[in-house]
Amino acid sequence: MSITLFLILLFCLTTFYFIIGLLTSRKVTTVDDYFLANRQVGILPLTFTLVATQLGSGLLLGTASRAYNIGLWGILYTLGMSLGFLILGFGFAAQLQSLNISTTAEIFELRYHSYKLKLFASLVSIISLWGILVAQIIASHQLFLSCGINDPRWLICFWALLIGYTMLGGLRSVIIIDTLQVIFILIIFTVVFYYALPTDGLATTFSIANLTKMQNYYFGKKYVVSALLPVVFSSALFSLIEQDLAQKFFAAKTAWTATIAAFLASIILTLFACIPLYFGIFAKIKNIAIPAGVSPLLPFIEKISSELVYALIVCALIAAIASTADSLLCAISSHIAQDFSKFLPTSRKLLVSKLITFLTGACALLLSFYVYGDIISVLEQSYRFSISCLFVPTIIAYFTPNVRQGAALVAIVCGSVSFIGVQLFLPHSIMQDLIPLALSLLGYILGAILAEQ
Q1: What residues pair up with 41 in beta bridges, in sequence order?
Q2: Could you give the CA distance from residue 9 to residue 21 in angstroms, rounded to a whole number?
Q3: Tens digit of each residue's pLDDT (9 = 90 or more) over 155-211
Q4: Which CATH number does the domain housing residue 277 bear?
Q5: Domain membership flag for residue 409
Q6: What is the pLDDT of residues 76-123, one digit of tens each?
Q7: How confident is the model at residue 347, as a pLDDT?
Q8: Using CA atoms, how far apart are residues 363 and 367, in angstroms rounded to an integer?
Q9: Residue 429 has pLDDT above 70, yes or no
């Protein structure tokens, strides 16, 4: 692939997004508008931005990599996110929209009447989201390297434009750009997928019997379900409490809007995940050489497509990463600007919020040069930390005002301590997720009982 062609396409798209952010910023006059688009987001924009939030490096590059190694089981990460959206659709999204809050951490002040718990919950969420954001930057770096672009200045220029449009327009620009990016990604990948399909016997090729035979022949290792479930478990549960998704539901026009958008997002994600799954599996079947550290998605597409199409695919991958990253960036800065507002200047709040967005992105970019590891592994650990600490008290507070501050504190302590314990003594086990949640719930129950005494 021509590096020049790729860079021209990429920076034309990114510059276009930056211009949208610049134009959108002229209409943003309040902090509520900046972070929540005045709570007037409709069904289609909400659906696209929800999909964009999850349509990042994990779904595309990570799914293809897992499919190359373990076959059909590679879709589990996306199924976890889709399951999360289904749960959100069955009443959860509507409940989030009806709370009339700005961040997930605010529930601790609204229900538990504790400003300190809100700050702690916000800090935990920030750390988790920051880990996911860094994973997106690492993925983009790997993409640049796979295209032969070794100069980090190109990466820095790309992320400067992304941080710039998010900083300028806030959630309004993120939603507009996410919509355009998702449409671009869906069209490009669907067309390439269509032309990559076998030309004869589609029904036979994708029959249950044939898929089972293929799985056993090319991926002979028998995988224990308990070793694969954590990725479903963590991604599904994190969907219920993560700020970057919740922020979109807080911005929804009505509870009905939030519900329909959650269901539509689940369907789109599940169907689209079949594309990287297919590419990863057939890269293994075709015995395509995969360089170390590179997702099989790229070598497979490069082999079956022209130079222009391959450049567009790589741009679509970058767009997928960007569509997740801008939502994360907006969510992290929302936490900092609104949950820690007492520690920030009270004048010119909108300007301060924009500066926070810029600094958040710049620090994540800097940190990404010092973090290494498998993309999905980084994502999983980021999910687990937040789930262990906050899931139980957050979920309980969403559905009932009759809560106990002491119970929430005990639940957080039990979840945090057990999270550290299972990391040390139970690696690679479903119990890594279940034990912290069970102990956190037990801590909440005990705390509530003691509070009644």
Answers
A1: 252
A2: 19
A3: 899 999 999 999 999 999 999 999 998 999 899 888 888 888 776 655 556 677 777
A4: 1.20.1730.10
A5: no
A6: 878 888 888 988 888 888 888 888 888 999 999 989 989 999 999 999
A7: 74
A8: 6
A9: no
Range 378-392 burial, b when 16+ CB lie within 10 A, else e: bbbbbbbbbbbbbbb
CA 132 to CA 60: how far, in whole Å?
Answer: 15
Q: Dihedral sign for Cα 237, 241, 242, 247, please.
A: positive
For the question of whether the overall pTM of this predicted structure is more than 0.90, the answer is no
CA 203, CA 205: separation in Å to the nearest integer? 6
Q: What's the whole-number average pLDDT of the chain? A: 84
Q: Could you tell me if residue 426 is inside a domain?
A: no
Residue 189: burial class (beta carbons within 10 Å; 0-12, 13-18, 19+): buried
At residue 252, φ and ψ (nearest 5 deg) are: -65, 150
Look at residue 151 and tell me if it is in a domain.
yes
Q: Is the pLDDT of residue 57 over 60?
A: yes
Closest CA to 165 of 9, 313, 28, 316: 28
Q: Is residue 363 exposed (0-12), middle (13-18) or buried (19+ Cβ within 10 Å)?
A: middle
| Residues 440 and 414: beta-carbon distance below 8 Å | yes
Measured CA to CA, the distance from residue 12 to residue 301 in angstroms comes to: 22
**Cα angle for residues 361, 331, 322 (degrees, 5° grid):** 55
Q: Phi-psi region for residue 287, left (φ > 0), alpha (ψ -120 to 50) or beta?
A: left
First to last CA, the chain: 70
* Residue 156 Cα distances to 57, 209, 221, angstroms: 18, 48, 41
Q: What is the pLDDT of residues 308-341, one digit of tens each?
A: 888 888 888 888 888 888 999 999 999 999 999 8
- Provide the pLDDT for residue 1: 56
User: What local confidence, expressed as pLDDT, does residue 76 receive?
Assistant: 81
Q: Please indicate, yes or no, if residue 153 is contained in any of the structural domains.
A: yes
**Which pair of tokens denotes residue 171?**
């959630």
Give the integer Cα–Cα distance in Å for 389 and 127: 12
- Give the C-alpha separation, 235 to 347, whole Å: 38
More confident: 257 or 3: 257
Count CB neighbours of 209 within 10 A.
Answer: 8
| Residue owning tokens 């597409």 | 301
Range of the domain at 256: 3-374
User: Exposure of 270 by Cβ count < 10 A (0-12 exposed, 13-18 middle, 19+ buried)?
Assistant: middle
Report pLDDT for 265: 92
Looking at residue 96, what is its pLDDT?
85
Structural domain count of the chain: 1
User: For residue 155, which phi and psi values (nearest 5 degrees)?
Assistant: -60, -45
Write down the residue that tokens 């919509």 correspond to: 179
How many whole angstroms separate alpha carbon 276 and alpha carbon 51?
A: 15
Alpha-carbon gap, residue 376 to 350, rounded angstroms: 34
